[in-house]
Structures are given as structure tokens and as C-alpha cells.
Amino acid sequence: MAKEKSNDNHNKDLRSWAEDVCLKKTTAFMKKFESDLPADMQKLFHELQVHQIELEVQNETLRRTQTELDSASERYVNLYDTAPVGYCTVNEDGRIIEANLTIADMLGVSRNTLLNQAFTQFIKAEDQDIYYLHSKNLFKKAEDQTCDLRIVKKDKTIFWGHITESIAINIDHEPVCRIVINDITDHKQLEMFPNENPAPVMRVDKDGILLYANSNSMPLLTHWKTSVKSKLPELWCERVGKALEQNQTMEHEIRYNGVSLSLNLCPIKEMDYINIYAYDITDRKHNEIELIKAKELADENNNLKSAFLRNMAHEIRTPMNGIIGFSSLMMEAEGNKKDEYAVIVQKSTEQLLALVEDLLLISRLQSEKISIKSFKFSPAELLMDISKTFSLDNINHNLDIITKIPDQYKDLTILADVDKIKQIITNFSSNAVKYTSKGSIEFGFDIKNKDIEFYVKDTGMGIPKKEQKLIFDNFYRGSEVISHAIRGTGLGLSISNELVRTLNGKIGVSSKPNHGSRFHLTIPFKKIKKGYNKEVLQQTKLNKLNELNILVAEDEPMNYHYIEIILKDIVKRIDHAMNGKEAVELASKNCYDLILMDLKMPIMDGFVATQKIKQQFPNLPIIVQTAYVRSDDKELALQSGCDHFIRKPFKKDDLLKIINEVMISK
User: Fold this and answer.
1) Does the pLDDT of residue 532 top 50, yes or no?
2) Where in the chain is the domain with CATH 3.30.450.20?
């Protein structure tokens, strides 16, 4: 609970911290530059600087992710060091150049003591010739070698070790020998008592006929579909023949019924038969698989994060170039050129702000429990509104924007979380426009049992089959997207996927390269029998804005100035409170028709100020304005008594629309 409270306080202070940093970084030149900009551009330029600082905090989070990747690499090393078998690497001179902790423990020495020591000094003198022979064959034939040797520990005690040698090339392009040692002392002791051996023990002649098998061999024989006095499977007959022919112990692995065994084929040349000793390596194989998975995951995440950071730097610098470049040109331009540059700066600012919002949203979706808020709405009108937006943004004019509404559902009204549904469909649509150079984009929906399916279909480049499951992962961008140098962060579909989970729905895609894609969203819904009547603003109420006395509680002078410019020619009177305490005092002394309340203010914040004002004037409308990004900010504001909520940065039309709605409902 204390940790959650700490996180909340951190989020609350982020904006304030970013504002302070921005203020400290602002040079005299930049102050002069900002003062020459129009008021609304000053606000947007400031918001951009603050959001850039907040974005740097997000980048720091990504850097911490790199630390986590390093931790994964450390776990990889720990798996190697604590493996149930001994691992070491020996150079061509027979000296140990690398060893894990397990082999050091086996030999009763420290790992540092092992390094640069001759491996043969730990082999019993009588068995050293066997090791030399196998090592020679390893480097000569580049084929794995196996043998059983008596290993001498530091305290002169001896254990039997099953040695597996394989060749590898080190970073200096030199051949080295990788050695795996299993302690098989118990196994060797049980060879004299095969029926008591807990693992399979068998004897096979040169023709592959099974001469003997202990009781614990029965599951393996059942798997092989053979028995004593019968022949082994053909593959194993060949392996038996090869071991006898070369008079060399060979090791082979087999897996059945979830068990992994290592079978050691030990030839008795003078008797023309082979003894097969098995030991369970299930745990070892499992650890090896986990080791490989951990390494692959660490590499994949590292590559993905690196690619994302490189792409994000590009996505930030592109609009920043437009903002900084054209802002400086505006200072020299006049007339239509100045207006033209202002539009470019505006669009670049909105583009960068959208990027910041996406980053904050995906972080919030993955770290918080997002609630579902259901409202009545018309699916038909929702799709019509979205399609109109993309019709206006259709820059290349080569696309036909089509909306297909089933006749029987034109007047359908449902109850669902319309905001989340709209964002998902908008993300689908943005991708469709981005990746479709000609043809059409189609919006539609259909009812399937108790679910409603929305879809967006395009005639664009399509998505390869192997990438269709990956496109909903964080930061993933398809190979075609990268090869065609199409801009984007790879967050849109990831955000959609997280939103769908909160809606208890399903998301999917069907696509074929060069033939377009169809993205669909399926969610449960509740049908509303009443027809959908869109709210119509009452014009008579709109005309009364010029009679309003408004109090603006805002500690940031630039933000207040922005609101003042918007409202000064529309309303009757505007008063300014620098903090919540002043707002409470002014509200008690004056008769206001509406209060615009900032949440983050010194002395007394907007939550407390709203509660105190509502206690005195319960019918006085209060609209909360804030730059907070937490999902529960709106709920907390409404609980404190406010009537509406607007998130910074906001546009003039957004503010006027909310004021109209609040005053109409008054």
C-alpha cells in the first residue's frame, strides 16, 4: 500500500518537476522567441517542452529495462554455474581456460585454482591414455567423444566421471574442447548388480539381439517394441555395430514418455557384445532448454528495445525539426507565409503530443487496472464519425472511404465502453490509411449472437502470415513497414490489444501480402431497446455565454493567459485565483456562474478547493482542468464534486464545448 501511495505521489510530482526543469532550461533567447509567438503557439510550444522532458523520463524507464536485460544475462550465467553437471573448456594444450562452479565442487577446488591447470592432472594415471586417445580423435575428426574415467579429487578420493567432449571455436577462431562431466560413481557400482540398478541396464550382441535386460529396462523396451532374445530397432542395431567396430564407448540420447535418458554403449570387443548403461538426464535437458530460452529471450528483448529506442528517436526528432525550424522562420515571415508556418508548427506539435500520449497510455494499460465505463451509443453513428475524420485526413485523395452499415442495425443503440471502442477502431483506421496507397478503406460492423464485431478493411500492402501474431506485441513493426520506411512507433495495435483485454473482447486480423488486411474487434454488448437520439445543443443557451462571470483557478500564468484570450471576448467577466485557497476566498465573496479549477496548485490543490466550494455553493458548476495522466484522475475529480473534466493540453473548441454542455445542463 505504501508503495502504491509512493507511485501516486511520483506521478503527481512529474508534471511539476518537468515544469521546473523547463523553466531552468529556458534561455533569454528562447524567452524572446516565445514572446514573439502568438499566445496559443506559446502555450503549445511550452507544452511541447514539458512533454519532451516527461518523455525523457519514459526513456529512462527504457534504460532501466536494459538493466533488467543485463540481469537476465546474469541469470543465464548462474544457470551455467549451478548446472547439475560439470562444465569446462580446455585448449589444444590440454589446459582448462573456463569452468563452472559445479566442476570445481566435484574436484574439491576453487574455480580460480582450476584455470590454466592441465585437465589430465585430475584423471587417474591408469585412465589418462584413454583420455589422450579421445582428445586426439576429437581435434582430428571434429566428432564428439565420450568415455568413462576415474577422476581424482584434491583430497585424493576418486569418483567415476562420464566424459563428453565436443569441439568448438573460441572468439580467437581457435579450436577448443568443451567437456561435460557427470558423476556416475553410483552407476558404476550398480553395474555389478544390474537388477538393483534404478536405470536401464542391457546387453546386446553384435547382431543387435537383446541378450539381457534388467527390470528397470521394461519401459524402454516397451517403447522400442522389443524384448529379450529379440532384435533392437534398426537405428540402435546400427549404433551397436558402430561401437563394436570402433571399439569405442558411444553415448546417445533418447526421450520417451517425458523422460530423457543417456544410453552409454560400452563395447566388450573380445566377447562381441555391448553393455548398455543408462542414466536419467531429464533434469539436465530441462535446464539446458531453460538456459537456451533465457538467452534467446534476453537477446530478443535487447534487440527489440534497441530498435524501439532508435525508432523513437527518429519519431521525436521529425516533428521537433518541423517545430523548431518553422518557429524560427515565423519570426522572419510575414502575412500568409507566417500563417502557413504556424499551421506546420501546429501539426508537428500535435504529432509529437500524440506520440507522448501513446507512450503514457501503453505504460498505464500495463501497470494499472483500467475500469470499463459503459454508455449508450449508436454503432452506426460511431463509424460514420470516424470515417468522416479519415475522409478529411485523406491526403493523397487516392482512397475511397466506405462505411457499410447493415440496414437492420441502422437505428441500433447499445451499451458499451464507447471511448475504448473508438480508440481501437481509430488505431485500425490509422494503420489502414498509412499502409494503403490506393484503393479503399471500409468501415463496418455486424451482430454475432451476443457479440458485436467492428471491422476495418483495406486494400493495402497486407501482412505476411508469420507476422500476423506478432503485430499486437509492444514495439513490433513488420518487415514490410521497415523496408518501405513507413513511419510509426509500433504502439497502436499494442494499445488496441491491451484495451480489448479490459473489454473482455477479442482482436484479430486476416491478411494477405499485396491484397490488403481486415482488422476486427469483437466484444460483448447490451442492446438498448430505445432508439438513439443524439443530443442537440440548445442554441438559446449558447447565446448566454456573454452573461457569464467566470473564476479561473490556475497557478501557471501562461495557462491562465491562454484561457483568458479564449474567453475574454465571449464572457462577461474573468477573475484569476493563483491557488485553491484564493479560489475558495473569491468564490465566497463574489457571485460566479462557473469555475475552471486546476488540480495541481500550491497551498491548496484543486481537489480540496472544489470540495470546500461545493459545500458552500452546491449548484455552482466547476470544470476541472489538469495535466495529470493517471486513469483515476477523472474519477477522483468527480468524487470531489466537480461537474466536468478537461485534460491539458486542450484546444479552444474543446473548452467552449464543455462550457456549453455544463451550462446547458445547469
Assistant:
1) no
2) 86-183, 188-280
